[in-house]
Amino acid sequence: MTPQQPKSTVLNIYGAYGRRLGGWIAVAALVELLGDLGIDERAARSAVSRMKRRELLVPERRHGRIGYTLTDHAREILEEGDERIFARRPPAMLKDGWVVAVFSVPESERHERHLLRSRLAWQGFGIVSPGVWIAPWRLAEGARRLLVGLGLDGYVDLFHADHEGFGATAARAARWWDLDRLGVEYAHFVEEHSSVLARWCRDGGDGRTAFADYLAAVAAWQRFPYLDPGLPAELLPPTWEGQRAAGIFFDLADRLAGPGERHVSTVLGRHSS
Q1: Whole-model pTM?
Q2: Can you tell me the distance from the alpha carbon of 237 to that of 232, in angstroms, rounded to the nearest whole number?
């Protein structure tokens, strides 16, 4: 199983369960839940402290116990993640064309240049050349909102475009995005989590196991919707495992979210009375 990072795992626990179960989690409950995922108490407490310093968690005492709730900023991060991670997106349509972002940032504003590039990549844009990035057209509105929200729109022009040459669009797409690397990562996800799904289909499991397997699947999956632009099917390699990986993830989510939530609810109740 892919090892989980304590800080991101704490955020995933709040995102998957904490928000639905009152929003407040006692520190002792967090330590127990992270222990279910193989994260020891020292690492758990350190992760919570780092999230507090980054203003993602705020301490609050209830029932004589110290615990944490999410800050507004953390809730915004999770809500944006909900839209991407749990969206069941079909591939884009080639006939819809592309959004092309053309930008130029002065050398004196290198921080803005780095931020712009990293956020476009996290939106699923590929690189045509250093100042020309591309994505399926359906990502245009999300990119527009992002650039305006970050105050970077003054550096960028967005165009609605078709690829008219030269060379096959599929060959160009393989250069604009690192499809080989992404394909290897999808294949790894399929190999690792198809066996988990098969085990649940065959044997079932208890709530604690459902909680651990679900959080592991979320941790392994959550990068893909940000890095994969959802290219039209005719542009993808013949061995592409993206759709199969998505099917496995959503099947696991449907099977495990409920039993996992019942386990979390039991743990929270034990540490809040």
Answers
A1: 0.88
A2: 11
